[in-house]
Design goal:
It is a single chain. This protein is of the alpha+beta class. The protein has two domains: 11-94, no CATH class; 99-206, no CATH class. It has helices spanning 11-21, 56-63, 89-94, 130-139, 166-171; strands at residues 25-30, 37-41, 50-55, 72-77, 81-86, 99-101, 113-118, 123-128, 144-151, 154-165, 175-178, 190-195, 201-206. The protein starts with 10 loop residues before the first helix and ends with a strand.
Length: 210
C-alpha cells in the first residue's frame, strides 16, 4: 500500500483558507430602548430579541479588547440606519436609538399618534388623536417629528425619512406625504418607527379595493 502524499501549504495559502472559513458577519445584540450592547457573537441566538448584523471588521476592536462594548451603543443614524456609535453624551443624545417601532392597531382612538398607510391616496397620513392634541396644546411639542421607513428584512436599509412639522399636526386633521418609491406600496415589507416623542403610537392601513 502506498502512503498518501503529504500536501504542504504556504503561509499565504493557509491564511486564505482560514479567512474563507471564518464567519463573515457578526451579530450585535442590543437593548432597543437604551441602545446598550448586550452581546457580540458570530451565531444567531434566541436569547436576545434585537440585533444588528455587521461585518467582522466592525467588531474586531471589541474582540481584541481595544474597545469596550460598554462605551458604545446601537443607534439610529438618519443617513445610514442602525449603526454602532460611541456613548459620548452629547453625541448619544443627538443620535440615540430610543425609538418606537410603530405597530398596527385596531383601536387608533386609544393611541396618541397615528400613521396611516393609504394605498387609495398613494401615500402616508399622520395625525394626532383628540386627546393627544389637547394634551400637547398645553404641554408643547418639539418643532418636528421624524418618521423612519425601513426595509423590514434589513433594518440597515433606510428607505426614507419623513419630517412632519408639529404645528401642522396640532392644527390640521391629517398631514399627507406621498409615496416616493414602489417599495412603499407593500406595507408587509416595511418597518415604520419614530423616536419616542408621543406616549403611544399606532399604524393603520387603507387598501385600494377598486
Amino acid at each position: 500500500m502506498q502512503n498518501d502524499e503529504l500536501i504542504y501549504f504556504t503561509e499565504e495559502e493557509l491564511s486564505q483558507v482560514f479567512a474563507q472559513a471564518a464567519p463573515k458577519n457578526y451579530f450585535v445584540y442590543y437593548d432597543k430602548k437604551t441602545g446598550n450592547i448586550l452581546s457580540v457573537t458570530n451565531e444567531k441566538t434566541d436569547k436576545f430579541e434585537h440585533f444588528l448584523e455587521v461585518e467582522k471588521s466592525v467588531i474586531v476592536p471589541f474582540l481584541e479588547g481595544q474597545q469596550s462594548i460598554n462605551d458604545y451603543c446601537v443607534a439610529y443614524d438618519e443617513k445610514i440606519g442602525l449603526t454602532i456609535i460611541p456613548k459620548e453624551e452629547e453625541f448619544f443624545i443627538r443620535r440615540t436609538n430610543i425609538f418606537e417601532i410603530i405597530k398596527p392597531t385596531t383601536a387608533p382612538e386609544d393611541k396618541e399618534f397615528i400613521v396611516e398607510w393609504n394605498m387609495k391616496s398613494w401615500g402616508w397620513y399622520f395625525y394626532l388623536t383628540p386627546k393627544a392634541r389637547a394634551r400637547l396644546h398645553e404641554e408643547g411639542l418639539a418643532q418636528r417629528v421624524a418618521i423612519f421607513v425601513t426595509d423590514a428584512s434589513d433594518l440597515n436599509l433606510l428607505l426614507r425619512i419623513i419630517y412632519i412639522d408639529t404645528s401642522l399636526l396640532l392644527f390640521k386633521e391629517k398631514v399627507y406625504h406621498p409615496f416616493i418609491s414602489t417599495k412603499e406600496h407593500d406595507l408587509s415589507n416595511l418597518l415604520v418607527s419614530s423616536r419616542l416623542v408621543f406616549e403611544t403610537y399606532g399604524l393603520t392601513k387603507v387598501y385600494d379595493n377598486n
